[in-house]
Amino acid sequence: xxxxxxxxxxxxxxxxxxxxxxxxxxxxxxxxxxxxxxxxxxxxxxxxxxxxxxxxxxxxxxxxxxxxxxxxxxxxxxxxxxxxxxxxxxxxxxxxxxxxxxxxxxxxxxxxxxx
Amino acid sequence: xxxxxxxxxxxxxxxxxxxxxxxxxxxxxxxxxxxxxxxxxxxxxxxxxxxxxxxxxxxxxxxxxxxxxxxxxxxxxxxxxxxxxxxxxxxxxxxxxxxxxxxxxxxxxxxxx
Lengths: 115, 113
What we know:
The complex is a heterodimer. By secondary structure, chain A is mainly beta. Helix content of chain A is 0%, strand content 50%. In chain A, strands 2, 5, 6, 10, 11 and 12 form a six-stranded mixed β-sheet that branches. In chain A, strands 3-9-8-7 form a four-stranded antiparallel β-sheet, with no helix packed on it. In chain A, strands 1-4 form a two-stranded antiparallel sheet. Chain A is globular, with a radius of gyration of 14 Å. Chain B contains no helices and eleven strands. In chain B, the strands form two sheets. In chain B, strands 2, 4, 5, 6, 9, 10 and 11 form a seven-stranded mixed β-sheet that branches. A four-stranded antiparallel β-sheet of chain B has the order 1-3-8-7, with no helix packed on it. In chain B, a hairpin with a 2-residue loop joins strand 5 and strand 6. Chain B starts with a strand and ends with a strand.
């Protein structure tokens, strides 16, 4: 079946530091890949997505590249801010034969950015 | 404003007392689903619905029921809640599934005593 593995953290950084959150996946077909963010006390919201190999998703200074050869979709940001403190979830959707109609999520990575 | 709403936001109940958590979306989305979020386990899908009257089990359906009589509503029913259903629940919707953004509700925190 499909699965997503991401570094669990927690990750603590100082403001303006470089961020990487690793995400790798297994899927039977050609999945779409997503990063969702959950701010404290809120629901999840889409941060960025990529729908095919070598696509780069980007938003709010975050970016991630769909790497089929390494089955990865690592999240990066060059300079984090205190307001980026949140839980980040990597996810995939896969409509190939035999897959469920769902998003498969990683377990989430808590990021705390200190001033 | 496009949104997914859930009610109630917080609920404390006792074992065995039937409850319903409502979910409504105003975006005319076909696909809706319910997830539960637990520490160390991330989000797990409970049920999903591809359209009106079309529902199916997700990864953790035991102890839950759903219905989809109207496109906009997708209530989650716990017929006889147990303490292991204490969790944070999210409803989500999207135009379809693949490659589409899912929009999440604000969550319902449930405590079953």
